Structure formats: C-alpha cells, structure tokens
Amino acid sequence: MIYYKVGLLPLTNYEVKENIRDYLLESRKKERQPGFYAFLQTIENGMRSNTSKIFLGSVRNSENLTLILNAYAEKVLIDEVQKTDKGVKIRLAAESSNIYTNEEVILSAGALYTPQLLMLSGIGPTHRSWFRDDSGS
C-alpha cells in the first residue's frame, strides 16, 4: 500500500513484524523516548525502490543522458561572463577531465558533498565563518 507519493517517489508505511522492533516501538510510545521510531520507506509492490530505479528507469537509455560511473566530481565549471554552469570537472581513475554541456548540470552529490562541491566551484561563502562556534567559548 502506498502511503504517500512525492512525484515519482513512493513512500510506504511498510509493516514488518519483528519482535524486537515491535517491543522497542511500544516501549517508546509508553515512555516517550526519542531515537527509535517507525519510518516511511520507498517500497512499492513489495520491492524496495531506489533513486536510480525511480528517476532513471524510463530515461536511462535516452540519447541526451550520459552516465559515467565511478567518477568523482571535483568542481562545477562556471562561465564567468554569463554566470551560468557550463560543465563539470571530474576525476576518473587518476585522470581529470572537463565535461561540457549545452543544457544544464544536475548536481546531486548528497547532503555533505553538495555544499563542499559548490564551495570548491566558487559558489557560496569564500571563508569558513559559517563554521563558527556557537557555544560561547
């Protein structure tokens, strides 16, 4: 049963019967303890879906999409005059290459690496003041 669907992403409240899980969930409800809870999962028709299956499934073999596996993005290449993205510098094995696009760069490098990649590309703060210590010391 699909609980909720965000675009193509199916979110389900998939019922798994596991004694220890059920015991922890029940004890959390009674004692109001944070840290353990039931969560929504990306399961559709009894099978786990992942972003590759969901978002690339129908366009994986499209002529205007190129997938390069095991590549490491080093920076987004910026057209300094137009202030737009024009490609990506990648490292594949021990070799760096620039890949250019006529359309757009889709950046999806995760919660930690996306901001780092943007900063390495000259986008965002140029200093580390946003790492300030808020503890007062």
From TrEMBL:
Gene3D superfamilies: FAD/NAD(P)-binding domain, Glucose Oxidase, domain 3. GO terms for molecular function: flavin adenine dinucleotide binding; oxidoreductase activity, acting on CH-OH group of donors. It comes from the Eukaryota. Residues 110-124 form the Glucose-methanol-choline oxidoreductase N-terminal domain. The keyword ATP-binding does not apply. The keyword Flavoprotein applies. SUPFAM superfamilies: FAD/NAD(P)-binding domain (SSF51905). Keywords: FAD, Flavoprotein. It holds the Pfam family GMC_oxred_N. Its cofactor is FAD. Belongs to the GMC oxidoreductase family. This is Glucose-methanol-choline oxidoreductase N-terminal domain-containing protein.
